[in-house]
């Protein structure tokens, strides 16, 4: 089905905003510049979004793949499922821009607390909730110990990935050189701490 003019304009603004945010940062990108680059008038932009923060939140949600359903691996192999969870990237074609834009997002969110709260609710909370549900499920199955400090566990799982994404940016088309097997290392460290030992009859 062909998109309406309004839908086309909406997507052009999203794409222009993402490109500008990645290149210049959020503070340095004005609605005037977004209008100029997208070819969509400011009046039309403000019909879709009340302010730059609202536009930014939608653009970032698109960039991280919030429009794509995240698969939930459950093969019975605890290690493989965890690695698959940590390795999954929604919309891999958007990965380079995600890496470019994330330091700008964190800097902007640190100065704009309401934006930061809204961004975490949109982007981070679903991921964290899914990991917490996975931990609880595996505890019920007896494959993870019952004494897990969930917040510490989430930090162990997410922290190294965020560090890589923030501090190890790459050029377009280049392969990531930093810790190419990072997800496997994270999974093995996590399971070394929290998996029920094999001697108790649980196969990992």
From TrEMBL:
<dbReference type="Pfam" id="PF00440">
    <property type="entry name" value="TetR_N"/>
</dbReference>
<dbReference type="InterPro" id="IPR023772">
    <property type="entry name" value="DNA-bd_HTH_TetR-type_CS"/>
</dbReference>
<dbReference type="GO" id="GO:0003700">
    <property type="term" value="F:DNA-binding transcription factor activity"/>
</dbReference>
<keyword id="KW-0238">DNA-binding</keyword>
<feature type="DNA-binding region" description="H-T-H motif">
    <location>
        <begin position="30"/>
        <end position="49"/>
    </location>
</feature>
<keyword id="KW-0805">Transcription regulation</keyword>
<dbReference type="InterPro" id="IPR001647">
    <property type="entry name" value="HTH_TetR"/>
</dbReference>
<keyword id="KW-0804">Transcription</keyword>
<dbReference type="InterPro" id="IPR050109">
    <property type="entry name" value="HTH-type_TetR-like_transc_reg"/>
</dbReference>
<dbReference type="InterPro" id="IPR036271">
    <property type="entry name" value="Tet_transcr_reg_TetR-rel_C_sf"/>
</dbReference>
<dbReference type="InterPro" id="IPR009057">
    <property type="entry name" value="Homeodomain-like_sf"/>
</dbReference>
<dbReference type="InterPro" id="IPR011075">
    <property type="entry name" value="TetR_C"/>
</dbReference>
<dbReference type="GO" id="GO:0000976">
    <property type="term" value="F:transcription cis-regulatory region binding"/>
</dbReference>
<feature type="domain" description="HTH tetR-type">
    <location>
        <begin position="7"/>
        <end position="67"/>
    </location>
</feature>
<protein>
    <submittedName>
        <fullName>TetR/AcrR family transcriptional regulator</fullName>
    </submittedName>
</protein>
<dbReference type="Pfam" id="PF16859">
    <property type="entry name" value="TetR_C_11"/>
</dbReference>
């Amino acid at each position: 089905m062909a998109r309406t003019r309004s839908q086309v304009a909406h997507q052009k603004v999203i794409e222009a905003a993402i490109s500008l945010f990645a290149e210049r940062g959020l503070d340095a990108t004005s609605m005037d510049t977004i209008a100029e680059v997208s070819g969509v008038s400011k009046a039309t932009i403000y019909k879709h979004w009340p302010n730059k923060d609202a536009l930014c939140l939608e653009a970032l949600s698109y960039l991280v793949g919030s429009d794509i359903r995240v698969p939930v691996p459950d093969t019975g192999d605890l290690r493989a499922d965890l690695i698959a969870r940590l390795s999954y990237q929604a919309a891999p074609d958007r990965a380079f821009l995600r890496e470019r834009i994330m330091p700008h997002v964190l800097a902007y969110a640190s100065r704009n607390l309401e934006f930061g709260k809204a961004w975490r609710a949109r982007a981070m909370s679903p991921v964290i909730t899914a990991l917490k549900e996975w931990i609880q499920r595996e505890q019920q199955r007896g494959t993870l110990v019952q004494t897990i400090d969930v917040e510490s566990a989430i930090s162990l799982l997410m922290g190294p990935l965020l560090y890589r994404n923030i501090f190890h940016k790459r050029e377009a088309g280049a392969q990531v050189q930093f810790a190419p097997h990072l997800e496997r290392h994270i999974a093995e460290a996590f399971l070394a701490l929290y998996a029920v030992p094999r001697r108790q009859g649980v196969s990992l």
